[in-house]
C-alpha cells in the first residue's frame, strides 16, 4: 500500500477541479437549476403533488442522482482518457504503484467531486422548495457509494475508450436514457402497471428510488432492493478493475 | 560488482505478431553510460519500455539491482527514471507542480529543496512557475528530464533525448547527462545519432531487428571495427597515378595532389610502408601525411550490413 502515491494522484485531480470552478462546479449546478425551473416550477405547478410531496421537491433526489451519475462517469473517464490521449499515462505506468492504487486515486477524486456537486445542488434546491431530509446519514452513504460506483465505471470507460466517440458513447447513449427513464422525474406509481414493471428492469431506478427514500421515506422499490442493486453494481466494477489489474488490458502492451 | 541491470533472454512479441525483441541478454554496470544504437523499429524503445514497466515481456527477465521488474516491480521501478521519446506533458500545469507530482507519484516525501537543485541543474528554476505550454521545445524536454529525476533515481533512461533538437540544445543535453554521470547515475540512452553515442557513451550496444548484435566498449569498438584513412599530399600535382599504384585502391583527388588510402588497423601489415616506398620509387614527392579514424557511423553501417 502506497498512500503517498494515491494521495498525489488524488490531490492532483482535485486541484484541477478547484482550478476550473466554472467548468467543474458552476456548470452542473446551472444545468440542474434549469431542470428545476422548467420541470419543477413551470411544468410542476400543473402536476399534482406525488404522494403528498410537492412535485418540485419530489424531483430533487432524482436530479441529484442524474448529475452524480453523469459527473462521476465523465470526470473519471476523462481523467484517465486524457492521460492516455496526451501520453502522460507513461508516468503512472512506470511508477512503483499498483493499478489498484491508481484506481483509488482517480476514482476517489472523481467521486468526491460528485459528492461536492451533489451537496451544492441540494443547498441550491433549498432556495426553491421545502425539502425534508428524513435520513441524512444514509443519504450521504448512498450518495458516496453511488458516486464511487459510477466513478469506477467511468474509469473503466476511460480505459476502454480508444477515441472521443467511444468516450462519449456510454454516458450519452446508455446512462442518460437510463436515468431519464429511471424515475428521476416521476414515480412508477404514475405509470400503467405494464410500464411500471418494465421500469423496474432499469438498474438506475433502484438508485433513484433508494436515494429518494432517504429524503421522503417513500420509494418505488424496497430499500433493500436498492441497496442490493448498488452492491451488485459496485461489485461488478471492482471485478472489472481487478481483471484489468491482472491483465494490463489496454494499458500495457 | 553485480551489474545494476541484468537482462536475460528478453523477448517481446506484440499482439500484432511483430517480434520487437528476440533473446536479448545484457548486463549494465552501475554508473556507466550505455548508448543503444539502431534504426527505427529496431527494438530500442521496446527494451526501455519493458524495463520501465510500460510493456509486458513475453519471455526472459530483467532485474534492476536484483529486483525482478515483474515480481518485485515496486523496488525495481523506484530506482528508475524514464525520459520518454515524445514530449508528453500536462500543458496547463506549472513546472514546479509537475515535478512535485512526479516525486509524489513515486511515493517520495515532498522535498522542494531537492527539486530546486534538479531544476537549477537543468536551467529551469527561473521557469518554475511558468505553465508548461508556455515553454520552448528544449525547455519541455528538460522538464521531462526533471520529472524523471524528481524521485532521485539511480538509473535514468533517455529515449532519443535529442531527436529533432537543434545543435546547441543537443550539446546542452550532453552536458546535463555528463553531470548526472558524475553524480553516479547510470544512464541508458537510445539514439539515432552516432555522433551522440560517440560523444557520450562508455559502451555502445547495437540493436537491429530485435536482436542485440553486440555490446562493446566504445573505444574498443571503434578500434576493432575501425579503419583508418591515410591522406597523402603530394608536392606536385599529377594527372594520374602511375599504373603499378592503381592496384592499391587509391583515390586521387580532383586537385591531383591528395591521395587517399584506406587501411585496416588490425591487418598484420597496414600497407603504409609499401605505399610510401612505391611513391618514392615513382618519383612522387610527399609533402604531408595525415590519418583519420572512421566514425562510429561507418562502423555501424558496416556491421548492420554484414550481419544482415
UniProtKB/TrEMBL annotation, chain A:
InterPro entries: ABC-2_transport_permease, ABC2_TM, ABC2_TM_bact-type, ABC_2_transport. Its main location: membrane. It comes from the Bacteria. Coiled coil: none annotated. Keywords: Cell membrane, Membrane, Transmembrane, Transmembrane helix, Transport. This is Transport permease protein. It comes from Defluviimonas salinarum. It is found in: Cell inner membrane; Membrane. The chain crosses the membrane at residues 25-47, 53-73, 140-161, 167-187, 221-245. It is a multi-pass membrane protein. Pfam families: ABC2_membrane. Residues 19-248 form the ABC transmembrane type-2 domain. Belongs to the ABC-2 integral membrane protein family.
Automatic annotation (TrEMBL), chain B:
SMART domains: AAA. Keywords: ATP-binding, Nucleotide-binding, Transport. One of its GO terms (molecular function) is ATP binding. Residues 5-234 form the ABC transporter domain. This is ABC transporter ATP-binding protein. The lineage of its organism: Bacteria, Pseudomonadati, Pseudomonadota, Alphaproteobacteria, Rhodobacterales.
Amino acid at each position: 500500500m502506497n498512500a503517498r502515491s494515491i494521495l498525489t494522484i488524488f490531490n492532483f485531480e482535485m486541484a484541477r477541479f478547484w482550478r476550473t470552478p466554472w467548468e467543474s462546479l458552476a456548470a452542473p449546478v446551472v444545468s440542474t437549476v434549469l431542470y428545476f425551473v422548467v420541470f419543477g416550477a413551470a411544468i410542476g405547478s400543473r402536476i399534482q403533488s406525488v404522494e403528498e410531496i410537492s412535485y418540485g421537491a419530489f424531483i430533487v433526489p432524482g436530479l441529484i442522482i442524474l448529475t452524480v451519475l453523469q459527473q462521476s462517469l465523465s470526470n473519471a473517464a476523462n481523467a484517465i482518457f486524457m492521460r492516455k490521449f496526451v501520453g502522460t499515462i507513461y508516468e503512472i505506468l512506470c511508477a512503483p504503484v499498483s493499478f489498484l492504487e491508481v484506481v483509488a486515486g482517480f476514482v476517489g477524486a472523481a467521486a468526491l467531486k460528485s459528492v461536492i456537486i451533489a451537496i451544492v445542488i441540494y443547498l441550491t434546491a433549498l432556495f426553491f422548495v421545502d425539502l425534508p431530509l428524513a435520513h441524512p446519514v444514509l443519504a450521504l452513504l448512498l450518495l458516496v457509494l453511488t458516486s464511487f460506483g459510477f466513478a469506477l465505471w467511468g474509469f473503466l470507460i476511460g480505459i476502454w475508450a480508444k477515441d472521443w466517440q467511444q468516450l462519449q458513447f456510454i454516458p450519452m447513449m446508455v446512462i442518460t436514457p437510463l436515468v431519464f427513464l429511471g424515475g428521476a422525474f416521476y414515480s412508477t406509481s404514475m405509470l400503467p402497471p405494464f410500464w411500471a414493471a418494465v421500469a423496474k428492469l432499469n438498474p438506475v431506478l433502484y438508485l433513484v428510488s433508494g436515494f429518494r427514500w432517504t429524503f421522503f421515506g417513500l420509494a418505488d422499490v424496497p430499500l433493500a432492493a436498492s441497496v442490493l442493486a448498488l452492491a451488485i453494481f459496485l461489485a461488478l466494477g471492482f471485478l472489472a478493475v481487478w481483471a484489468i489489474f491482472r491483465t494490463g488490458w489496454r494499458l500495457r502492451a | 560488482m553485480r551489474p545494476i541491470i541484468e537482462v536475460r533472454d528478453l523477448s517481446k512479441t506484440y499482439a500484432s505478431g511483430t517480434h520487437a525483441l528476440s533473446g536479448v541478454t545484457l548486463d549494465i554496470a552501475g554508473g556507466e553510460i550505455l548508448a543503444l544504437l539502431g534504426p527505427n523499429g529496431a527494438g530500442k524503445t521496446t527494451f526501455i519500455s519493458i524495463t520501465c514497466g510500460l510493456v509486458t515481456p513475453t519471455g526472459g527477465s530483467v532485474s534492476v539491482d536484483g529486483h525482478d521488474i515483474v515480481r518485485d516491480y515496486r523496488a525495481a521501478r523506484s530506482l528508475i527514471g524514464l525520459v520518454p521519446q515524445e514530449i508528453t506533458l500536462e500543458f496547463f500545469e506549472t513546472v514546479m507542480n509537475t515535478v512535485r507530482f512526479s516525486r509524489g507519484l513515486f511515493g517520495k516525501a515532498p522535498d522542494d529543496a531537492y527539486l530546486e537543485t534538479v531544476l537549477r541543474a537543468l536551467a529551469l528554476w527561473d521557469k518554475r512557475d511558468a505553465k508548461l505550454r508556455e515553454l520552448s521545445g528544449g525547455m519541455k524536454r528538460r522538464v521531462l528530464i526533471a520529472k524523471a529525476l524528481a524521485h532521485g533515481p539511480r538509473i535514468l533512461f533517455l529515449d532519443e533525448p535529442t531527436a529533432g533538437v537543434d545543435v546547441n540544445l543537443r550539446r546542452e543535453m550532453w552536458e546535463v547527462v555528463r553531470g548526472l554521470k558524475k553524480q553516479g547515475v547510470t544512464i541508458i540512452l537510445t539514439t539515432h545519432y552516432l555522433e551522440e553515442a560517440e560523444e557520450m557513451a562508455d559502451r555502445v550496444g547495437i540493436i537491429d531487428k530485435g536482436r542485440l548484435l553486440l555490446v562493446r566498449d566504445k573505444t574498443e569498438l571503434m578500434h576493432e571495427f575501425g579503419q583508418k584513412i591515410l591522406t597523402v599530399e603530394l608536392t606536385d600535382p599529377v594527372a594520374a597515378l602511375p599504373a603499378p599504384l592503381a592496384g592499391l585502391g587509391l583515390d586521387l583527388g580532383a586537385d591531383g595532389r591528395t591521395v587517399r588510402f584506406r587501411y585496416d588497423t588490425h591487418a598484420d601489415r597496414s600497407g603504409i610502408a609499401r605505399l610510401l616506398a612505391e611513391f618514392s620509387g615513382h618519383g612522387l614527392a610527399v609533402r604531408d601525411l595525415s590519418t583519420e579514424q572512421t566514425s562510429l557511423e561507418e562502423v555501424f553501417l558496416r556491421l548492420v550490413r554484414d550481419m544482415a
